[in-house]
Give the backbone structure.
Amino acid sequence: MPVDQLQEIQGLYGPFTLSERVIQKIWLRQDFSKDALRTTSGKVLEVKDPGRWNLQEGPDFKEARLVLDGEEVQGDVEIHFNVADWELHDHQNNPNFDRVVLHVVLHPSRNDTPIVRTTRRDIPETLYLLPILEEDLETYASEEALLALEQVDDLEWVARFLEHPLAERLQVIREQAELRWAQKLHYASKRLSGSDWTEACHQFCLEVLGYARNRAPMSRIALEHPLSDFQQNALTAEELFAEQGSAWRLSGLRPANHPRLRLAQYLEIVKQRPDWPDRLAWAFKAFPSAANEICDSSASAFRKRVGLNQLQEGISGAVFNDSISNRRLNTMICDAFLPLATAAGLIEGKFYWMHWSPGDAPDGLRRFLKHAQITDRTHPQSNGSNQGALALFLSRGRHMMKN
């Protein structure tokens, strides 16, 4: 089986490791905008069949069916991070790659597209993938990292992590969580630089209601329709859904998370609480101060001291009319509103973000934290521990493997 290639990429929340297998999965699922596809030579491309995923030696996908400028072509597809990887992997001298008709490359070349050839001197067409992705690369990498959590016992770097003393493991998780907090705060500040509090809340809320798969089209809806459009009660979920056309990712989506239902949910929130961003600001201003907290304070002690459960219940009822599930609301508070409120100067939210109850998280993440002795009955799972562990997975243990 071929070795899975890796590349470290600078993301919104710091560097993360991207596997070439993630790019292969994007091609397999056709998880990109397919409107007006063109190769670098200018040919119109239509994908009839992405091909059979080949996990052995040779091209990544066999027997793909493509249409190039109206002519149907059948052949293989090879996936790379960069065009230069073709020659770096010596494909030009390997007859196994002679049937490649399409070279799918993540990163566009900064100069003219380098010419790649097979041993027969044929020139496969090239398609750049990054410009047509509907989500940022970190989202795809996060999804893959969360899937890997289901096989944590098989990951060498996790075993290496567990070889370190507990104090070091706790420190790594905390440091990674603090880094993600700083970067989320920076992103929230950038959001506020282009929008006021009301519109930033509106945008973040719709994005989180889109879940990981449909954040991008939800974000476009928020930008195209400010909160005032929703307050006029003239929009319908069906119309908003139709506006985004084929941008929705519906394959494998749970029925309860369908974008139509989430749009209807948000429309009802605005109907019942048209001033919900103002209510949210008032709620944050009433939070007890956490300015004197220390970094290693326990989540359970902090939650009891500030009455976190009551604070969460207050936001749920007064702001969102108790219409959002606790897990999704916690995700929204941690991913969006605590960084945003801190950037807006309404609260010092770092320790609330660290110790808040976690939102949506896979079982594998809970098991990993328990196995690594990061969480137990006296140290419950928190958003900070989740974020630190997720950062560890995104970096594939880079911080521990270097020791």
About this structure: Residues 95 and 219 are 46 Å apart (CA to CA). The first helix runs from residue 20 to 29.
